[in-house]
Amino acid sequence: MGLTLGELACQVGAVLQGDALISVQRVMTLQNAKAGDISFLSNPRYRRHLVNTQAAAVILGADDAAYCPVPTLVSENPYLAFAKVVAILNPVVPSPRGVHPTAMVDTGAVVHESAWIGPMSVVEAGARIGAEVVVGASCVVGRDSSIGAGSRLAANVTVCHGVQIGERVVLHQGAVIGSDGFGLAKDGERWFKIPQVGGVVIGNDVEVGANSTVDRGTLEDTVIEEDVRIDNQVQIAHNCFIGAHTAIAGCVGIAGSARIGRRCTIAGAVGIAGHLDICDDVHITAMSMVVQPITEPGVYSSNLPAKPNRQWRRNVVRFHQLDEMARRLLTAEQQLAALLERGS
Amino acid sequence: MGLTLGELACQVGAVLQGDALISVQRVMTLQNAKAGDISFLSNPRYRRHLVNTQAAAVILGADDAAYCPVPTLVSENPYLAFAKVVAILNPVVPSPRGVHPTAMVDTGAVVHESAWIGPMSVVEAGARIGAEVVVGASCVVGRDSSIGAGSRLAANVTVCHGVQIGERVVLHQGAVIGSDGFGLAKDGERWFKIPQVGGVVIGNDVEVGANSTVDRGTLEDTVIEEDVRIDNQVQIAHNCFIGAHTAIAGCVGIAGSARIGRRCTIAGAVGIAGHLDICDDVHITAMSMVVQPITEPGVYSSNLPAKPNRQWRRNVVRFHQLDEMARRLLTAEQQLAALLERGS
Amino acid sequence: MGLTLGELACQVGAVLQGDALISVQRVMTLQNAKAGDISFLSNPRYRRHLVNTQAAAVILGADDAAYCPVPTLVSENPYLAFAKVVAILNPVVPSPRGVHPTAMVDTGAVVHESAWIGPMSVVEAGARIGAEVVVGASCVVGRDSSIGAGSRLAANVTVCHGVQIGERVVLHQGAVIGSDGFGLAKDGERWFKIPQVGGVVIGNDVEVGANSTVDRGTLEDTVIEEDVRIDNQVQIAHNCFIGAHTAIAGCVGIAGSARIGRRCTIAGAVGIAGHLDICDDVHITAMSMVVQPITEPGVYSSNLPAKPNRQWRRNVVRFHQLDEMARRLLTAEQQLAALLERGS
Asked: Which listed residue, of A174, A215, B90, C52, carries a Cα 20 to 30 Å from C155's Cα?
């Protein structure tokens, strides 16, 4: 399908500079766009590709518009305008409705007539599948779980028993919602497994990435509020609470009973210890470790950037001598002070 | 179901202070417990909630009992007593027996009559499924593998061929036991894949978390001894040996041929290099990296806690100058020594 | 099956020292080899086991041959020779051909007559499955994807729609190829999901480990070139490019639009930031974080090895004072210089 620049500008609320009747079919990067493509510029890293782009039009901010050789859709938030244009030009493929003949829906489950249960999927007793829900191939929806209207489960997703999934939620391939938390009590040298009898409540518009895991609560529920976005391979332990609009990048691990505020961003491979609170509007940079509560909004870090190994190793040796160095520095300062006093 | 405090105290070996005939139905946290709930206090972090709890009774240690406004079950190990009470009040839902009509059990497999093979699951030739085993939905048990009595596979679990699983083992959703190790030999610039012909042997009472992976050995077996507890998203590479009663938290990666002792605890997102030994009773704190053998029991660390980014960045710059700083400190000390000698 | 040392030496291009007619059945480690086994020595760590080995023969380098009490296969690359002997003595079990009766192949899919589609697997419309391909149990191959000749999908693998897999590719259990990238645009405090309309192109001879994930591109394709080897639990984000012959160990996370060169090795749990280039022949040590482009071949690091916790904590305290220490050192140096000048 194609749309004119005029239609797109109208739909995404951008200001068109150029011929409103030009039609575009596809969104493409500045360097690889061809005739019939619309492109975008939001990351300054790619600004150098603007002057030579072959795109039919470019979505960008007002500051960049003057340098663009082709028609522009000028937006205050060009990345959002770009995202909306991608969505407009790539509408979701409509799903069939009904239950695939190879799926197994328990007679005690309730599946809305507008929903789709894909091949080899299993829906257990007591589960409720809402309107327009799409359950992909080889998924399992456990007993007494509910999937809200418009949600989509990709292939091989596991929703365990007693889990509540909101509306328009997207669960990607291999995601597991409601696995047992890692609850163990010491009994001499042996471990005693604490039954995990809480559930998981996931709000509307949440996304959980491929092969990510969200554990059920021990006694109460693990809670993921609305519009939380979780990337691939993320682990969220039992009893966590994740506030609305927080985004969590790939490979993050969050330990049990951590409570994370609203509008936080947690970059890749961050680790967050259990039983602590992080307030709203906190941003944690990649691979950092949070072991203390954070009570002030802001950016927090504890990652070290890679350097050539030879240089790195020298500094690591010194790191392991730091306390000694600090003591030696203090001694030197004291000796100096004495000398200076004597000299004065 | 409900039980009286008297019955619970008796079953978990706690000392009851209060009315033995009070009946409780549910275990709940101190802050959210209501009438009919029993609660617990073991983490001092939550002690402040004790005085106002609405619980009908609280499990706790002798030191805290005096401050409790309601009947108590006093235990030397209140966390274990709590765990046992959760288990008593939440008995495992009995599983059906037999093979679900949509499952595919090879005629060359042996399934005990008291076992359950869930919908869409596959049991390949030569596999042996023991008494009271529960195989959840959409699992695959590979050829010539065995699952010991009382073990439970949650949904979407993969047990590869030639894997031995002990008794009362729990494999959570998406876990993979017996995947190929990452064995490669250099052949010029190309890689030559080393066939992984060993197996995996998992002892009794082991738990493997959701989406965790345990690779098969190259020539011999990867071994997980009894009562080892593994959380979600953990990677255990080929030829590893994990000693009994060791617990491994989420997102840990253990490289090939590492040998870990008994009763160790490995916190979240730790990395352990290959071909090294860690002795018994070692505790590694979260996000640390172990690259050398550990021969003494104790606590080991190499993690850095997050700080405000501005402060962090200043220190990181200095970190990369550490070796130079150390040399400058030495020079200053030598000059000082000369001055002091001259002055004396 | 067994083979004589003469046949093996010939097939792997090694020089036999000893009786060519000795037959061996199995490859085993030096310490555990028994009569009828062939062993190998390539990692010097295991050299001490050579003199007492019970193996019938040992594959090793010329330098070690003199110390070997049994016949030897001497090779310039003993690890490769070992790998080839393992492959020769453990030929791949031939797969059946056809479609298992419980599999669901869409009538719009094309499956080569020599391929195998395992039980409970789903092949969607438009998918093309090449010659000698083996699709294991419970896999999903999405619409319009193609799997090249000789490739093998282990159990529970998900290949999403519109993904191109080359020849002789191995996808291990639970791997997901073509999941949505984590593409979000801010719309006030809410997130707007950017449809991910690119694909994934995987070259020949690639291996992707158990529960690893490779996201599809946003607009263009995520590209994994030939002979790239990826271990378990690795996350490769949208729009990444991984050059030929690069090996990526377990638990690595690579953020979006990173471009990694040829013949790189990325050790376990490394994190690589998005939108950067790493040139050919770069080696990154375990648990390091790369946040800047790398333009020179070599070894790069930013990991810290674990130490006893008490010692570690003292140094961490100093780390957080480093900038202050550096300033104090500078002051001391200036005072010293003044004293020295005065004294001279």
From this structure: A215
Amino acid C2: pLDDT? 85
* Residue among C227, C269, C326 minimizing CB distance to B190: C227
CB nearest to C300's CB, from A87, A172, A307: A307
Q: Which of B317, B322, B331 to mutate to test the interface with A (most CBs of A within 10 A)?
A: B322
- Structure tokens that stand for B114 in this block: 């008291």
pLDDT in tens, B109-134: 999 999 999 999 999 999 999 999 99
Please tell me what DSSP assigns to residue C318. Answer: H
Looking at every residue in chain C, the average pLDDT score rounds to: 96
Q: What is the pLDDT of residue B340?
A: 87
Task: Say if CB B77 and CB B94 are below 8 A apart.
Answer: no
Instruction: Determine the residue type at C263.
Output: R
Name the residue among A306, B233, B113, B64 with its Cα closest to residue C211. B233
Residue B28: closest C-alpha in chain A = A219
For residue A43, give both structure tokens.
């990351």
| Residue of chain C whose Cα is closest to the Cα of B157 | C156
Q: Is B1 a residue whose pLDDT tops 70?
A: no
- Maximum pairwise Cα distance, chain C: 96
Residues of chain A where predicted confidence (pLDDT) is lower than 50: none
C233 part of contact set with chain B, CB < 8 Å? yes
Report the residue of B213, B230, B239 to disrupt the C interface, i.e. the one with the largest count of C CBs within 10 Å: B213
Check: CB of residue C263 under 8 Å from CB of residue C284. no
Give percent of chain B above pLDDT 70: 99
Mean pLDDT score of chain B: 96
Write the residue in A174, A207, A263 that is nearest to C189 by C-beta: A263
pLDDT tens-digit series, residues C181-208: 999 999 999 999 999 999 999 999 999 9
Shortest distance, CA A32 to any CA of chain C (angstroms): 9
Across the interface, do C263 and B124 touch by the CB < 8 Å criterion? no
Q: Which chains touch A (3 or more CB pairs under 8 A)?
A: B, C
The DSSP bridge pattern shows strands C23-24 and C3-4 to be antiparallel
Mean pLDDT, to the nearest integer, of C95-124?
98
Please give the model's pTM, rounded to 2 decimal places. Answer: 0.97
Task: Calculate the alpha carbon distances from C258 to A180, C162, C199 in Å.
Answer: 35, 21, 16
Q: Supply the pLDDT for residue A341.
A: 86
Q: Which chains have at least 3 CB atom pairs separated by less than 8 Å from chain B?
A: A, C
Q: What CA–CA distance (Å, rounded) separates C160 from C199? A: 9
- Cβ contact A286–C271 (<8 Å): yes
Local structure of B200: helix, strand or coil: strand
State the smallest CA–CA distance between residue A248 and chain C in angstroms: 10
* DSSP code, position C47: G
User: Does any CB of chain B come closer than 8 Å to the CB of residue A325?
Assistant: yes
Report CA-CA distances (Å) from B191 to B252, C21, C74, C154: 26, 31, 21, 20
Q: Is C286 on the interface with B (CB under 8 A)?
A: yes
CB contact under 8 A, A298 and B286: no
ipTM score assigned to the predicted complex: 0.96
A56-99 pLDDT, tens digit per residue, is: 999 999 999 999 999 999 999 999 999 999 999 999 889 999 99
Per-residue pLDDT tens over the stretch B230-273: 999 999 999 999 999 999 999 999 999 999 999 999 999 999 99
Judged against a pLDDT cut of 80, whether residue C1 lies above it is answered with no
Single-letter amino acid, residue B34:
K
Which segments of C140-211 are extended strands (E)? Answer: 140-141, 146-147, 152-153, 158-159, 163-165, 170-171, 176-179, 184-187, 190-193, 200-202, 207-208
Q: Give the closest-approach CA distance of B177 to chain C in angstroms.
A: 9
Q: Could you tell me if C90 lies within 8 Å of chain B, comparing CB atoms? A: yes
Chain A environment of C322 (Cβ under 8 Å): 322
